[in-house]
């Protein structure tokens, strides 16, 4: 099976698992967070694959809400908080990976850092845009609640966005010194750096995800 086919199959499983959790579980926030983290830690933490996971999770949330009896608003808020928490951990893993790689000096240049930060900057917007897109295909009630939640979060911000801002602030002073006017890396070199960063971040996220899952299991 090709990687594309494997991801498609995995995304469908994510959607079904999240849907069942939203429909039946009580601790929805923790369940959605754990499912999202388990999915993310098996991927390279690039924008494309993170977006795929976010889409699958959000579709699962929408599907589960449609099958769940009772109100929608609070359940949706809990589920989306779980997704936000997972993406915050993803951003944290990237932050820690950047610290590790930039400490290696010339092996990770300022241009590499700029590319990584540019990619990280769009994480929150991709998150909210994906939720909004999924909402367009939902039933009227769920669509309205999801759109309202996205509008609210755009005003107040997400934990994911806060972690991204923290990362950008930490590394911005380093960039000011030498990135402007510097020669860009070739496409092949940039892809290699991106893959290396994603690999390190995925390893860190795996540890974060396992620790949270173990904590959740003990609290059950």
Q: What oligomeric arrangement do these chains adopt? A: single chain
What is the rounded distance between the termini?
A: 36 Å
Structural class: mainly alpha
The parts where pLDDT drops under 50 for at least 5 residues are 178-183
Helix content: over 70%
Number of strands: 0
Report the biggest beta sheet as strand number plus sense, adding barrel if it closes.
none
Account of the protein in words:
The chain is mainly α and 220 residues long. It has one domain. The protein is 82% helix and 0% strand. The chain is built from 9 helices and no strands. α2 runs antiparallel to α9 and α3 (47-67) runs antiparallel to α4 (73-102). It is globular, with a radius of gyration of 18 Å. The termini are far apart. Residues 178-183 have low confidence and may be disordered.
Q: What's the structural blueprint in terms of helices and strands?
A:
Blueprint: H1 3-24, H2 28-40, H3 47-67, H4 73-102, H5 110-121, H6 123-135, H7 140-156, H8 159-178, H9 187-219
Keywords:
single chain; mainly alpha
Give a brief description:
This protein is mostly helical. The chain has 9 helices and no strands.
